[in-house]
Each structure stands twice: as structure tokens, then as C-alpha cells.
């Protein structure tokens, strides 16, 4: 799921220099709106096919092998890197083995070199000696060899104006040259005595698709006050200008969790080498500094850049349709991931579930009327760039439609881990939600609560919104959270976090939904030109 952008991210905490820009993934969830009254006409449900799909999901499943290859063999998978392209090529070979028709890798202009951290070592050498746990921030430069320097804790005022921040920074300018600068106060994570439940209750799942009023607009800083991103940008420029050696963020997470994302503009030359440090290590160092002790750190970072990564790729394959093969039903997940771990929950398992749904359709010898196309996107973690490039090229927008704009029935996206699917929400009128509810009704025994609709055309937080922001039926899929919030964008996002049984349920739900959308007489209902909500994102 996208970052700095799933990715539009803001700091999880309001204090001035909270750390890299991130927010808990639920922030990207779309709003349900009031559906129209139900129509009397029933949806044609192929119950025999549903039984075949369920049976096929229990035999020869490829979900865990796919997760293994993507998260253990072909990681890290940052956009613009050779390993991501290898992962995409492997996935296309896998899909071809199921009998799908792979399409050539589709290039799009990323515009930045790929980046890979080859080596990092962070140690404290005085007044005590210890190895420290850190992650390097992506698209930042290497250190010039090993840096051995004093630590300095930069503590800007809370919620400053530009004048207040400038005054503080000018007062410490002489103190940061050559230093390893820890930016911000240590955050004492609260004692976790009530962890969120790993599964949604039936009531909570039903509430997802219930009508609800529009959400309040996001809070904005008081007039004259800087946002967290503006503060961080100013500090980055300050540290580079005044010769700091390394910038260190505190992770602000308990239990050794580190969430590190990329720098905000992907231009390494505008940053000093940067790491995110385990909260517990950060706290020990800053407490010693607050006591007046001199703390020395030793840091070595080697990063590699790939100029060829300026061109990135999306991977696509399809099951050709029959009498309506010029029309499309699409499903997909982003195959790129952050570099801290294997990217298993975000989003190797999403890819695996969608690929498994296609395997199941082939195994049951489905003959869809419409072409069913799977997309494995890149650039999602850099503000949903890959899918947006694809939509612009092939579909256009409601305001400027391309030739295929009216040929897409729906796009289903999966990007919240391995939990059971509990509901779906589609961008469209109430009638679109009714169709999905009727398709999903036979799956209620698997825990699926139903479907709803949404109408906001906001800047994408994941790949479904690359479609809906352009007026196309993008479907957001709600899942049981399991360990997603813990592992998301962190050093814990590994193979071990994936729940195989839940992922198999998700593959059944996807395969059945895709099949029925591909077989029905009509495309999924859409907003008419007159009904189309206004676009309210910042155009990219």
C-alpha cells in the first residue's frame, strides 16, 4: 500500500518532527454512500461453477509458493530496480504456466533511478558500545566510507511557523557540521494493553457497507503553522547546507518495529545519508545526550542507483474472452514493495491471491465472455504511479475518455494483507453495489458481508483509486486485518505474517466475483455523465 504517497500520507503523530511521512493504512479506505433501492431482477448466479471454484482452491494451491518467491527470492522489490523486473518476469512465467496469455511488460516513465541499499552498519562507540538496529531511507545517498562522529539531537519547536523554525535552525547551524543528527524528540510508545482484534466481527463487517454520512474533511495546520512535511523538508535542506554527516529519525514504534519509507522527492542529491533507528535505541541515545554526555556513533552506508530504472514496468496477462472479448474485467495488486523486509503482506500475498484466482478459473475450465486481465503494478508505493500511467494510456478519464473507457466492467484491487475478504466497495451508483451484493451473496458462509458503493474521486491511496479517480469502477476490498497494521511498511513484513487459510478464502471470493462479472449480460452499472462526481484530487 502506497506511502509518502500506500502513497498523500501524513504523520501519524502531530508533533512537529514526527518522522518519515506515514499513516495507518485504514486512512486510505473509501467512503460508502447511500445505495439506491434494490431492484427486483435477480442476478444470474452459476452455483455449479461456485462449487467448482471452491473445490479447485483446495487442491494445488500456489498461494504460498508465490509468496515465497516474491518475498524470499525476489525481494527487495523497489520500483526501478532489477529485482522488481525479475519478479515481474517470474510472475508472467507462472501465469503462462496456468494457461494465461502473458502480455509484453508495459513500460511507463518513472523518471527516477532505481535504488538499493547494499550495506549498512550503525554502532554507538561512546560512552558505551553497541550495535544499533536501523533501516536506511530509500533514495538517500551513501556515506563517504565509515563516518565516526558525535551525535546531536535537533529539537525544533512544536508546530512552528516558518519564522520560528528559521530562528531555531539559525541558532544551531554551527553545531551540526560533521555531526550525526538525531531529529526530533524520543517518543515513548504507550503500553499496549488492548491490541486491535485481528478479525472483524460480523457486525463490523456489515457496518462497512452500511450507508454512512460523508467523512469530515482532513484537518489542516492552523494558518501560518508548518505541516510535518514542510518541517522535514526544511530540516533536510538545512542539514545538507550546513554539512551534517547523517540524519537519524526515531521509528516511534514499540517492540523494535521500524517503518521506513522513501524520501519525499526521490532525489538523492537533496539529502544527507538518512536512517530510521529503532525507537528503543533512539531513546537511549537521546537520554544520554539530554544528560550532557557526548555520544559518538559510527555509521557506514553503501547504496546503489540504477539509471535504467527511470523506465518502470507493469506486468499483465489475460484469459481471452469469447463473444465479448473486446470488453474487460480486470483484477490486480501491486508487486512493488518497500525494501525493509520481503513485502509479504504489502503486497506479495495480494499478488498471490489474484494470481491464484486466475489459476482457479483455468483449473475449472471457465470460458469467460469478457476478457479477464490481471495486472501486477509497479510504482504503487511511490503514489500509485504505475496503475495511473496504465489508466491514462488505455482508458483516459470521464472528462477525456480513451477508446477503451467504455469497455471496462470493473477493476478489483487487493492491497491489505492475507485476511479473509469481508466486503467490497465499488465506485459507482447504487445499482453497481446491488450487482456486487447479489454476486457475493452465495459466499456469505465464507464470512463475506456484502458490498457497498462510494463516490469520492480522490487522489489514489492504492491502485483501485487510479481507476475511480478517473471515473472508472474501481473496487476496494475489505479484509480481516490480522497482522497487517503491525507489518505494514515495516521490517516485520515477512512470509511468516501470511495466513494461508484466509488467503485461500480470498482467492475463492475473487475468482467467483470475476467470473460472474465476466459472464453477465451487461457491464457493471456506472455513473452516467450527468451523475459523475467531480474530480477532487491533485492531478499528477
Short description:
The protein is α/β, with parallel strands linked by helices and 540 residues long. The protein is built from 13 helices and 17 strands. The radius of gyration is 24 Å and the shape is elongated.
Protein architecture, described:
- This protein is an alpha/beta fold.
- Helix content is 28%, strand content 20%.
- It contains 13 helices and 17 strands.
- The protein has helices at 47-57, 63-73, 82-97, 162-172, 202-208, 228-241, 279-290, 344-363, 385-394, 430-440, 463-468, 484-487, 500-519; strands spanning 101-102, 106-109, 114-126, 130-131, 134-136, 146-154, 180-183, 246-250, 274-277, 296-306, 311-319, 324-334, 370-377, 408-413, 421-427, 450-454, 474-479.
- Strands 1, 2, 11, 12, 13, 14, 15, 16 and 17 form a nine-stranded mixed β-sheet that branches. An eight-stranded mixed β-sheet has the order 4-3-10-6-7-8-9-5, covered by helices on one side.
- β3 (114-126) and β4 (130-131) form a beta hairpin.
- α1 (47-57) runs antiparallel to α13 (500-519), α2 packs antiparallel against α8 (344-363) and α8 (344-363) crosses α13 (500-519).
- The longest helix is centred in the middle third of the chain and has 20 residues, at 344-363.
- It starts with 46 loop residues before the first helix and ends in a 21-residue tail after the last helix.
